[in-house]
Every structure is written in C-alpha cells, then in structure tokens.
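Subject: design request, 144 residues
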C-alpha cells in the first residue's frame, strides 16, 4: 500500500475516533473521559485492586493512575479500601454510583457505535468485520 493511502486511512480513523469521543462526552453526564471509565470497568470485572496493579493492567503510568483514582473518589464512583492488617495497602473499589456510571457509559458507547455503523449495509458490515478481525489478529500476533 502506498504511503499516501496509509496516511489518508490514519487521518480518517482519527476523524472517526475524535467525532465518537466528542459525541460520547457530550452525552455522558459525568465529567470523565475514557480512561477513568476503563478503570471502572476493570474494577467492576476484577474487583478491588491496588492502583499500581491497575496502572500495569491497563497500561497507564502510576502518576496517571493516581490522578484517575483521585477523580473517581471525589466523584463518589470509587472508594479506597484500607487493609486492616497493613494500612499501607490501599485498594480501589467501584461504588454503586460507579456501577451506575459504568452502565451509562456502556449504553452511550453502544448507541454511538450503532449510529456510526448505521450508514453501512449488511455486506459492508460483514466486510468491515473481516477487516477488523484481521487487524486484531495482527496485533495479537505481534504481542506474542
């Protein structure tokens, strides 16, 4: 593939991603971006965790994770759990309000994607799905 086509593809993907992020952010009633939502999802899926573990799992720096955790705690979407045996051990846990925010984020995210793909017909969706599967497989193959 020639370089011009690659750059055009990258530009189109960036435009699509930016538009989707803007649509999501406008519809989401919490002052959060995608990163804190990913943290809430990780806490929901795997339970309370140390911030350092979360940072490593999700791929954030410890400093970024500290900022995200502080924001989630201030909004009441997560809370810090202190280990009774060792007060230095602190885990972050999703709250009931955090669970509600996560459900809302997932609902809005689904709607944003449905709106994105509704311009495609069934054949185009099938082709796009094959391309995405190939791209994901390529990423997984390079991680091994």
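Subject: RE: design request

Done. Sequence follows.
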């Amino acid at each position: 593939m020639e370089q011009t086509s690659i750059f055009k593809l990258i530009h189109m993907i960036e435009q699509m991603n930016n538009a989707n992020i803007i649509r999501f952010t406008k519809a989401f009633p919490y002052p959060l971006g995608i990163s804190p939502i990913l943290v809430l999802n990780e806490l929901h899926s795997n339970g309370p965790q140390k911030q350092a573990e979360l940072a490593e799992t999700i791929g954030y720096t410890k400093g970024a994770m500290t900022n995200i955790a502080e924001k989630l705690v201030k909004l009441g979407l997560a809370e810090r759990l202190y280990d009774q045996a060792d007060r230095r051990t602190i885990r972050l846990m999703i709250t009931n309000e955090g669970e509600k925010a996560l459900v809302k984020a997932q609902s809005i995210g689904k709607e944003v994607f449905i709106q994105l793909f509704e311009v495609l017909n069934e054949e185009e969706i099938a082709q796009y799905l094959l391309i995405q599967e190939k791209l994901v497989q390529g990423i997984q193959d390079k991680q091994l």
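The mean pLDDT is 93.
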